[in-house]
Amino acid sequence: MRKVNKAKVIARAFLKDKSNKPNWHKERLEICETCPLNSKNLPDATVIDKMKPRCSACGCFILEKTSQETEMCGKADIGEEPLWPALKVETSSSSNLDLINLSPDKINVDLNKDYYLVNYGDTKKGSDSLITLQFTSKDSLEPIECKSTCGCTTPAKPKLIDKNTMEISFSVRTTRASRIVSTVTVYYNVNGQRRNVKIKVNAKIVD
After folding, report:
1. How many Å apart are CA 72 and CA 145, to the nearest integer?
2. Where are the domains of the chain?
3. What kind of architecture, by CATH, is found in domain 85-207?
4. CA atoms of 67 and 118, how far apart (whole Å)
5. pLDDT tens digit sequence for 63-88
6. Confidence (pTM)
């Protein structure tokens, strides 16, 4: 699986009407406003930097980047912990599943080769959480079951939201080990054919 082409995301960002911003877009802008990597906050900021701020980590214009659900904070591009996650992972092929992150916690979800990656980074021991993800397809979906490779992740039975959308939830327990490397596999039928999608969970547990 591959994510949607970056050029397509950029073009869509500039064409999008940003006059009526959803709450998640406003929240991202508020975070970026005071970020030291915002070009307008740099000591040598130019007039252009202040009029049309960019993220100095990734080079993107902040207003446009924050307007796209598929985008993640630019700090990830320089190996630092992102300040806000991507809300959606969009694939380039209509035969693949797109993902919407509905988790109450700000968990980063990305596409890595042939699986989705839920990356917690450093997580405090005892801070258990619930991951909720929706998968959408242009074809009809029929969820079957979810299985996990270890007890650190406990999946619930997947739900069908509508004919093109299924939802899965699984809890992540942070009291069982010092590091979590677990895989949740979702089995489903699409147009009568059995398939699966893998979600890998990665976390380092700290006291």
Report:
1. 30
2. 1-81, 85-207
3. Sandwich (2.60)
4. 22
5. 999 998 888 899 988 888 889 888 88
6. 0.68
